[in-house]
Write a structure and sequence with these properties.
Blueprint (H helix, E strand, L loop, with lengths): L4 H10 L3 H6 L3 H4 L6 H7 L18 H14 L1 H22 L5 H11 L3 E3 L16 E5 L2 E11 L7 E9 L5 E9 L5 E4 L13 E10 L4 E3 L10 H30 L6 H22 L7 H36 L2 H8 L10 H12 L8
Parallel strand pairs: 1-4
Antiparallel strand pairs: 2-3, 3-7, 4-5, 5-8, 6-7
Helix pairs in contact: 1-5, 5-6, 5-8, 5-9, 6-7, 6-8, 8-9, 8-10, 8-11, 9-10, 10-11
Length: 374
Amino acid sequence: MRFLHRERAALENVLPGLDQQLAAHPLAALESPDGPALAAFIEAGGPALLVPAEHGGQGADLLTATRVQRALGARSPSLAVATTMHHFSVGAVVEAAAHSSGMESMLLAAIAQDRLLLASGFAEGRTGQGILAPHLTARVEGEKVWLSGSKKPCSLARSMNLLTASIALPGPDGTPQLAIALIPADAPGMSVRPFWSSPILAGAESDEVVLENVEVPADLVVRTEVTDDGRLDHLQTVGFVWFELLMTAGYLGAASALVERTLANAEVEAAIRAESATAVEGAFLAVEALAASTEPIGQDTLTQALICRYAAQDAINRVSAATVEALGGMAFISSGDIAYLNSACRALAFHPPSRHRMAARLVETLAGEPLRIL
């Protein structure tokens, strides 16, 4: 067993040549806002990874996708973060297509054939705001919907072809109902503004996307059945399970990059190298086990995905601290890679839903109550 061999083999199997292309560039180049990582991902056919084979895509399952994201995270954390947001959006469209005869199937075919990138406009990055709370204001006249507002940060802001966003529309009885809108990036009224000031994960293109009275065709609006207390319908549940596992895998990949450097350094004590590898491998094995489950995805699966994610955060914190100290001051001084990876891998804690906000909800869920996302 060679460290990261399984994940890199999975990446090579579905996106041949991508790992080799990424490995040819310095980490700093891959992580820059205009770096080569996203272009290499698109060229390799990455946007079609989760698109079902009947629509021209790779049709990768969740287990394969987690391995791919870990491999990407070990080469470029920014690429893993950005592509997870794309896959999350694609997953929602796939689930909608399975229960609809609308435009979703045509959209999936277009994603695969034209290698389209989808950005996610769901709530993220705002302390105290629930993940399901819409950022955008919707104005409805008959079948027409106009959207205004902004999403910041929004990964893939400058490379996206479509923005997926949560909006509130009047339900059958007049009460607000959560819906998902698919908005072309070149729609009149769409613009992008600089937002991300940190050099960490700058390659994910997480800037501000602004919508000013943007019209969305009715066939590009998918209604859900999310209740006002935050309970999730099946489409949302599946999407968030994929999001949590893929994002966790990507950040475990970033931590694995530190472990890989430690394993290659014979001057580091064997016990430290083994302990670091064990911690990151153990966390990823939990992700793999859930991803490989044959049980139907439901609220229990989402609860387990959150537990995997929060446990991985603890493992990443331990691994990054141990590996940075073990590699020593000269490794830290001689290259920016160590400091960069140490910061990048810890950013998993910033993605919603935060552990603090979900603590009471997890306790309630483990006592038998329905899971609610905040």
